[in-house]
Amino acid sequence: MTWLITGGAGYIGAHVVSQAANSGLKTFVVDDLSTGISTRLKSEIELRKFSLQDTSSLQALFQEHDFEGVVHIAAKKRVGESVERPDYYWQENVVGYQNLLGVMAKHDVKNLVFSSSAAVYGEPNESSDSLISESTMCSPINPYGETKLECERLSEAFSGETGAKVISLRYFNVAGAGRPDLGDQYIFNLIPIVFDALDRGQQPQVFGNDYETIDGTCVRDYVHVQDLAKAHMDAMEHVVTAQPFYLPINIGTGYGASVAQVLAMISEVTGQKIDPIVAPRRQGDPASLVADVSRAAEILNWNSEQGLREIVSSAWDAWQLSHK
Ligand code: WQD
Fold it and tell me: Is the pTM higher than 0.90?
């Protein structure tokens, strides 16, 4: 049977679709192609272009297909933009998801994997060397994180009301590429920002070097997008066989890398000298955000396999393909 992947033409979605195909699982993609790119998908993958705001297209699709489950990845994900346009983010991320859940309930589709984010935690009020577990209090600090938390609440309610089996995967800092043509083409996060600076012959900025961390720069948990895609496979497999439940699960590596360490790895991989400019702290940046990944290991038997070197080198290969 077929799984519906919303946002399947996006950076993360296309990795999920590709891994599903490699493991013999049939997928169908819905994507409004606002940030997704249709050529990321092999020609045999069926793609329908519409927004989840469009309830009648959703209804029609569920009437035509008997979906085994849904992986819901489609969303707007730029934190800065969400601060400027909170209503737009609510409409796109929350109302779109409500539409999807309504149609799933009507067609009795009960297997669901929701793409959530570590942004639900906000700035956890814990010492900077402690890991973030799923029981850490959720307190988002921007509209993007608020939409993800609201979607988690909707997911839990959906499970309670319909008997659905639902996992929310809380992604930490996703980067890298499974294949060069599947890379992240946007310049919103640290690694592509640094590649872009190097391409322009400029030096990257480090936002603050006076944090209480190993070297004063912020620490994040960078997880390879290929490992993340595998976590989706494991979550899909799990929900199918489970009893009704709702569970958020962190997806990270359990290890932190500081901005300085990421820059050192980028320098090593690209062979370019990096002499960063120290800029003031960026508002809303916690010193350290590293996942406790024990639940993913316990429930999904999932562990990350790739480290910072693989993340940076695969991201660099993808960057060179799309920016030359
Ligand atoms: C990483 C680190 C910066 C740029 C964001 C979202 C989060 C999630 C992942 C989707 C930070 C530092 C960055 C630069 C720097 N998104 N930095 N110089 O903020 O950890 O997480 O993406 O779910 O919700 O908030 O990622 O890549 O922006 O920054 O020093 O030019 O790099 O301060 O410590 P972030 P990021």
Answer: yes
